[in-house]
Specification:
The structure holds two protein chains of two kinds.
Chain A (H helix, E strand, L loop, with lengths): L2 H21 L3 H4 L3 H25 L5 H22 L2 H15 L2
Helix pairs in contact in A: 4-5
Chain B lengths: L2 H16 L1 H20 L4 H10 L3 H12 L4 H11 L6 H6 L10 H6 L3 H10 L7 H25 L9 H21 L5 H15 L4 H14 L1 H11 L1
Helix pairs in contact in B: 1-9, 2-3, 2-4, 2-9, 3-9, 4-5, 11-12
Classes of the chains: A mainly alpha, B mainly alpha.
Chain lengths: 104, 237
């Protein structure tokens, strides 16, 4: 699969997952079923798995304590900023800045 | 201009203004995406193509990560689509909060229906019913800031590749910070077993398997227990 084919399929798939439920009404979100519950949890579990993957990628075995502490400081800052601002973008920015500053 | 057109334009501009708060987060995230894409040996036009065509923040990062790791196109596509499956539930939830049927605005409304745009709309919906064209304004404003951030990232970010200074360090944490913030926003107490199982499965899988496989095991494994968690709580209540 070449690059443009992949991007076009990813774009089309993403768009259809937003578009089709929008035009077919509210049935899917109101229908109670095990499948619906599993699908609804995929977003949260995907984000959880991505957190683990991205943090493991940042962890430095030669500085186990220091790198763990920096990730902890960054993560707590994100959650604190989110708690006070309710804004995902701002919380991301605060966490990144705290992580950057603690490694300087 | 008719009263109806003027009203539509007014709602659209109000939506664009509401998207300004999204831009605060989107521009640096998209800037970071541009830098990460260059680090993954993608050409600037390829990074731009992903932002313009896919427009799905977190999924774009994982797409680039998987491409950089040499993963096959089908696996990368599967990961992107699995990551975006949650969007299936946004449309029906949003339609219930609209002042009227979206009609001809549906394609544009759907294109801009990211996590953050959806959250912004649902927050506004606690105060009033939403004109569809207002939601289109929010989505297009978010899209514009995402594309702008990517342009800045691929134009100005080349010098930041491998940078060990504060900016380089901060950019390396943008991705985990984004995911932590998204999880914090989506967190519900009832979901903690699902989140814990997903984290443990991903971590354990990483000991023996490559990252993209560990991710799929973690996300599917965690989601599989979700009906049991729900039924258990229903039985208790």
């Amino acid at each position: 699969m070449n690059f443009m084919t992949l991007i076009l399929l990813a774009g089309a798939g993403t768009f259809l997952m937003r578009f089709l439920p929008l035009v077919t009404g509210s049935g899917l979100s109101q229908h109670p079923s095990r499948l619906r519950l599993m699908l609804s949890a995929l977003g949260v579990t995907a984000i959880t798995a991505l957190i683990v993957l991205s943090l493991v990628g940042l962890w430095q075995p030669e500085q186990p304590f220091g790198s763990t502490l920096r990730m902890l400081a960054g993560s707590v800052s994100v959650l604190a900023a989110l708690r006070f601002s309710g804004h995902v973008g701002l919380a991301t920015l605060v966490g990144a800045v705290v992580y950057g500053l603690t490694g300087w | 201009m008719s009263d109806h057109s003027a009203s539509q334009l007014s709602h659209f501009l109000a939506g664009l203004r509401a998207s300004a708060s999204l831009a605060i987060g989107y521009v640096p995230m998209a800037f970071s995406f541009g830098v990460v894409a260059l680090q993954a040996n993608l050409a600037p036009w390829q990074a731009m193509a992903i932002s313009i065509i896919v427009f799905a923040g977190a999924a774009q990062f994982i797409l680039v990560s998987l491409l950089a790791a040499g993963t096959g196109g089908l696996t990368a596509l599967t990961a992107v689509l699995l990551l975006n499956v949650r969007h299936v539930f946004y449309g029906p939830a949003l339609v219930a909060q609209l002042a009227c049927k979206p009609g001809r605005w549906s394609p544009l409304l759907a294109f801009g229906l990211t996590d953050e745009a959806f959250a912004t709309a649902m927050s506004e919906a606690t105060r009033r019913k939403l004109p569809p064209v207002w939601c289109v304004g929010v989505g297009l404003g978010a899209y514009g800031s995402w594309v702008l951030g990517t342009v800045l990232g691929v134009m100005l970010g080349a010098g930041l590749e491998g940078d060990e200074g504060v900016i380089g360090q901060a950019l390396s944490f943008v991705l985990p910070a984004l995911f932590i913030a998204l999880l914090g926003q989506a967190f519900q107490r009832a979901l903690w077993p699902v989140i814990a199982i997903s984290a443990v499965l991903t971590g354990l899988s990483l000991l023996w398997l490559p990252g993209h496989v560990a991710m799929i095991i973690g996300m599917v494994g965690g989601a599989l227990i979700r009906p049991w968690v729900g039924l258990n709580r229903e039985a208790q209540s």
